[in-house]
Amino acid sequence: MANLILNDGASLYYEEAGAGDPIIFIHGVWMSGKFFKEQVPFFQKGYRVLVPDLRAHGQSEHVHYGHTIANYANDLNQFITKLGLQNVTLVGWSMGAFVVWDYLRQFGDINIKATVIVDELASDFKWPDFEIGAFDMATLTSFMREIQSNQRGFLSGFIPLMFKGDLSEAELEWMLEETTKLPESIASAVLFDQSVVDYRSDLPNFNVPTLLCFGKEEKLIPVAAGEHLLEQLPNAKLQIFQNSCHCPFLEETANFNTSVDHFIKSL
């Protein structure tokens, strides 16, 4: 457990374990590094595992500025630079995928060995020419208002949509505890930015080896999103997790961990 001070003074919390080539797990919007609790014990046996809480998420300082995907990617660049990391594998889940892509767009892949993209679209927004997008403006507006007025109630309904199976009361409770650490003002601000970023035109420029991990259950993100990424990314492989929704790393932990490990070792 440690904290890294960013150039603008914000403090970023992260956990670290193991030794070897670095692997950084980047969580989704409103979430935290705790969602990767099943990955740390496995990967620390052969990698230097780093799990940051993004700006103001989880146990990071709740600063009320800098909440854009582009700035989260800048935070990631500072994280990699300040820790002197090389040969890095970036694992981006949900919004974390946008952070990975924005990092590649801004800073290139000079220190990056591979990327793993977990259940995300090239853009979450349902643009006129992107029908598989997750949100239209009416849905996004409704979500932002719910976050402002009924954060816990909204998340109590949203979190189960990330899973194919039913959550136990204890599982839902720890996830609610993590996601409600984020103040409502920040939660709605970053929701808007992460919902309207669009990386479709950038994907062909990302040559880094990429493993695409998608759950077959389509409550949030369709498998078609993974197929689209496979077509657009020049060096990608797609794996469908048959018994998962948005969180294959939690629903099919052993399969996810070994698949990512084999992918990295194959490079």
Automatic annotation (TrEMBL):
One Pfam match, by short name?
Answer: Abhydrolase_1
Which Gene Ontology CC terms are recorded?
membrane
Superkingdom is Bacteria
Recall the GO molecular function terms of this protein's record: hydrolase activity
Provide this UniProt record's keywords sorted from A to Z: Hydrolase
Where does the AB hydrolase-1 domain lie? 22-131
Spell out the InterPro entries in the cross-references. AB_hydrolase_1 (IPR000073), AB_hydrolase_fold (IPR029058), AB_hydrolase_sf (IPR050266)
> How is this protein named in the record?
Alpha/beta hydrolase
Q: Which organism is it from?
A: Cytobacillus horneckiae
The beginning of the lineage is: Bacteria, Bacillati, Bacillota, Bacilli, Bacillales
